[in-house]
Amino acid sequence: MCNTDRCCALFWPCILILACVVLFGQIFFPEYHSRDPNFEVDSVTINPFDMSNNSSSHKTTTTTHCNITFFVQNRNKKSFPLYFKDIKASIFYKKENISSIEIRPFFQLNPKENILVNANFVVSSEDMDSSVANSIVQDWKSGVVGFNVVVRGTVKIDPWTDVEENYLISVSCEEIKVGFSSNVTTGSMSGGSRKCHVVLLNPFHEVDMR
Ligand SMILES: *[C@@H]1O[C@H](CO)[C@@H](O)[C@H](O)[C@H]1NC(C)=O
Ligand SMILES: *[C@@H]1O[C@H](CO)[C@@H](O)[C@H](O)[C@H]1NC(C)=O
Ligand SMILES: *[C@@H]1O[C@H](CO)[C@@H](O)[C@H](O)[C@H]1NC(C)=O
Ligand SMILES: *[C@@H]1O[C@H](CO)[C@@H](O)[C@H](O)[C@H]1NC(C)=O
Ligand SMILES: *[C@@H]1O[C@H](CO)[C@@H](O)[C@H](O)[C@H]1NC(C)=O
């Protein structure tokens, strides 16, 4: 690489200066911009569907419990605690929002930390069009019910410090499939955990003036 004396004389000093600049940056400006958290659907269970006839209205009401466990991981290497709040999870069946639930706020203090977060939904045909309810029951009888899950809320990065940043978080977990081996068994998600798509938006870039 050294084909002239002048180049040779400059090569090592240049490398040294570059190394110093990189080292300085690492020490005084650690990875400032944090990375999006990782969301996965870890497991899903759905109770057998309960169909009850209302003798006075002659209507059949179908209800079930759907319990979803999310795996949430703080992907930051350095210490950027995350605080998740106002979190709402919703189940979408073919673009129809059929059930929704609030999730208690939670923290992730340590880099690389991961936690499991539960969401227990009640799904009732009372909350949807009868055609949608019928379609879900048909799927259940055929052995597989498929749906998408959307999680929305707020995530605070480095809360309670003067560099706190607030983001809106939008998570979408698509094509979750739950298999039922018979109409009396509890269904569970097939095919292992499912990665979700995460988007962070910073619509209100708050500057903390403390
Ligand atoms: C889901 O959770 C609810 C409430 O904790 C419980 O009643 C239901 O049996 C659970 N269902 C499954 C499939 O674990
Ligand atoms: C509900 O009523 C319909 C007819 O009215 C009947 O076919 C069905 O078996 C009943 N279902 C239950 C769970 O009682
Ligand atoms: C049956 O239907 C009637 C009329 O819609 C309603 O008032 C009643 O609460 C229902 N009963 C049950 C057990 O769902
Ligand atoms: C789904 O519907 C519920 C109840 O109407 C609502 O609170 C929730 O925000 C909706 N979810 C989405 C992602 O629109
Ligand atoms: C469950 O399936 C069995 C056999 O397929 C059937 O005889 C039974 O009526 C079904 N039960 C319900 C509640 O649909």
From TrEMBL:
Checking InterPro entries in the record gives:
NDR1-like
Q: Please provide the Gene Ontology terms (biological process) for this protein.
A: defense response to other organism
Query: Where in the cell?
Result: Membrane
Q: Which GO terms describe its cellular component?
A: plasma membrane
Per the record, the major location class is: membrane
Keyword annotations: Membrane, Transmembrane, Transmembrane helix
Superkingdom of the source species: Eukaryota
Write out the transmembrane intervals: 7-29
The record, for PANTHER family, names: LATE EMBRYOGENESIS ABUNDANT (LEA) HYDROXYPROLINE-RICH GLYCOPROTEIN FAMILY, OS05G0199100 PROTEIN
| Official protein name in the record | Late embryogenesis abundant protein LEA-2 subgroup domain-containing protein
